[in-house]
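User: I'm curious whether this sequence folds into something compact or stays loose and floppy. Could you predict its structure so I can see for myself?
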Amino acid sequence: MQVKKYRQAEQCFLVQGAKAVTETLHSDFDIVLVAGTDAFFTEWESPRQKSIEQVEVSVKELTDLGSVETNDAALAVVKMKPRQKPRLPANDFALVLDDIRDPGNLGTIIRTADWYGVKNIIASPETADVYSPKVINATMGSFLRVNFFYEPLQEFLTGQSIPVYGTFLTGEDVHTISFGKSGLIVIGNESNGISPAVKAKVTKRITIPTYGKAESLNASVATGIILDNVRRTGRL
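Assistant: Here's the prediction. I'll summarize afterward.
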């Protein structure tokens, strides 16, 4: 499950750690198997406990099976959800990720979206695999609460009736712009920013002003700043 082609073939992924596994057990994800230590199963209370295969393992076996060296409790094999087209509610904001390649960045963006109450993320097909262990671990459980879709962005953005905000080095100051009741917020690639094809679909350019000499902001940090300002307006 740590290699993408095997995840896709089995349509399953790994969740690791006591907190993440416990949260997943109480979510709407289907779980195939839970491997855990005796201590984990002793403390584990779940209404779905009897219908899930359980395998007791040692801490060393957990380390060998997973990708997290500090996992001393449990891991779960979880079924991916069927791919669906995004259905965005009215009067809401969603994130659009244009080729976010770093798994840690992607996981942190999902976690940040969850913090600010953003329920939907639409990502380009080139964006990192949301089910990779690094992404799942970085979300700290937020993947359970944020809907994630892969779509060709140029096609998805064509004909959108709500504002499409794009992050650029020049644009309207994110601290003073008046965000409306809904919109799509495009976050570009870590190195190249928003691609030309997606750039053409942006209707409102925004920027995070710089007060120092740094060349750029990390994509997940930029996402947090933008969502904080959207939330500050009281419309999100």
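Summary: The domain at 93-232 is CATH 3.40.1280.10 (Alpha/beta knot). The beta strands are 12-16, 31-36, 53-56, 74-79, 93-97, 120-123, 147-150, 164-173, 183-187, 204-207.
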